[in-house]
Fold this sequence. Notes:
heterodimer, A: alpha/beta, six-stranded parallel sheet, six-stranded mixed sheet, 12 strands, disordered N terminus, B: mainly alpha, ABC transporter involved in vitamin B12 uptake, BtuC, two-stranded antiparallel sheet, 74% helix, globular
Amino acid sequence: MKIIKIGLLLAVALGAISATVGAAQASQDKPVIIMVSGPLGDPFFSALKKGFDDGAAAMKADGQYSTISNFDNVQSDLVHLVEASASRHPDALIVGDFFPDAMNPAIKAASAQGIATIIDNTGEQTWQDVGALTYIGEDPRAMGAASGERAAKAGAKFGICVNHVAGNPALEQRCAGYDDALKKAGGGAKMITMSTQDMQNPQANLQAIKGALQADPKVNGILTLGSTQTAVAIQAVKDTDRQGKVVIGATDVSSTALAALKAGDLAFLIDQQAYLQGFYAAVVAAQYVKFDLHPIGEIHTGPLVITKDNVDRVLEVDKEYGGIRGAQ
Amino acid sequence: MTEVSASSEPWRKRGRAPTRRLRRLLRRPEAGALFAAIAVYLFFAWATRETNFVSLNGTAAWLNSAAELGIISVAVGLLLIAGEFDLSIGSILGASSIALAIGTRLFHIDIWIMVALVLAGSALIGFLNGLIVERTRLPSFIVTLATLLGVSGAGLGFSRLLTNTTTVSMTTPPLAQAVFAGRLGQANIAILWWILITAAAALVLGKTAFGNWIYATGGNLEAARTSGVPTARVKIALFVATAVASSLVGVIQAIEFHSGNASNGQGYVFQAPIVAVIGGVLLGGGYGSAAGIFLGCVIYGVISVGVFYTGWNTDWIQLFLGGLLLAAVMANSYFRHLALSAR
């Protein structure tokens, strides 16, 4: 217990230091934009940050990406990060609203202070409540529904949805959307949740998916929501001798997933274009600060469906501009 | 000792030996873990009776999970017995896997050279951990927490700098594939690595002077030092061992899953000491066994994989593990009490 406590103290202290160091003066010439979003260990957020950096550079803004280093205490760490960022009085604050109940008071306080606030990636349901300018990202339920419809069209009826971030409402909604669509096809989906420590452990993910397949012989569809899980889901289907009988779909683009799509192991990829979420957020923030202009309503970057038919162009881009599409 | 009365009173030996053997078994550090492992396995065998958990492939499934955790846990357990912690294992694993992927794919370095480099680099980090703990006398969980953060940051930073991302895929020539990620049916070669490393650890602990030094260092540091045990060397060697063990798992996972990821391995930071403690290692040092740690990993593997074979709601898995940890630690404490009072 002691170790955990000291670890947290250190992590919070480090976070606070990194948040205060380099606190810049707010200025209209070079607006300071802080983005609070997911950890870069996940290639998805890596692509999002790349978009944010490129967007900030294009708008000649000072873009600063801040994130959590682990998921041990994810909700309060994120809240603290929002508070620390707001206390630096940036011109704009972009936040991924992953845990609305925990994070909304802090985001609301920031926008009430007069900081231009944008909700990015997650928070489609909540961006208006916290006084944000706009929401840029996916409609998670629509992503899930699109996945379910695709899966049903390919013959799936009973699915499992692999949720690798326990307690994240957006991922739960994707699973719910998948379930809805499969129910319409006369089946349904069950969600399996990875424990927080095992989220990035490929072996644990592989054995979990394999176990879920063994536990229910009816299962003929899998939806994965992270790139680690996509690769091992394909392996799990091979290991249980159900190749060709299980329709695997994914909502997170990675080079491995694209290659699997081309090889036919993966039936479809539903992309929410993380790079665009980062890029647009930086552009909207800078344009609002500089020119007082902003989009009305939400900007949706997904669901974009990638299948065998249009994968080649995506692969070309991935090869030429590494990291924009996700993992290498 | 039991041989004394072999000729004169054979009836006596027959009557007493089994109970004596049982009593001796109960006094071993792994006694609690052995009963827990059997109970947990039987429970899951029953709960999954329709879903192939007790089949060759089902067994391979939980062994594969236990093996990768086990390779790290044996080293971490030995270090715990010597009275120190190592939290840096998590980042060393991730950094090793991403370094291997970047080195072979981006710079086209030969896989064997890369593996050697990665293991040597990790050994160096372990050496520094040990040296800093020894020189500064700071608690090892603070020192290795700093390394955990530092190595993790460096791993993420370099991989993003070089590739814009934190997951890099790789391909492996057949020989390296066979050595680190070979498969027999669905059982990974990591299981063999795990068993060999556990056997080596048991040998070191039970049959060598170094093994005695480990117990002495963790049992009573001052007494060990004054009686001439090179405690600094013992600790540094064990810090190197934990670093190399986690690096090896990083290599194994990168080759097995054809990709390196800088954030892999963080889960092991707590899982490794947890299974060591389930296996009877005393968190304060000075007590424990390699067989116990092995059984701890078996228990963890059976539960964490078995739960998915039951088809139950997976939200409960953590509750299960928590309850089990408490039960195992309580059983261990009971058996330890038995062992110490009987002496």
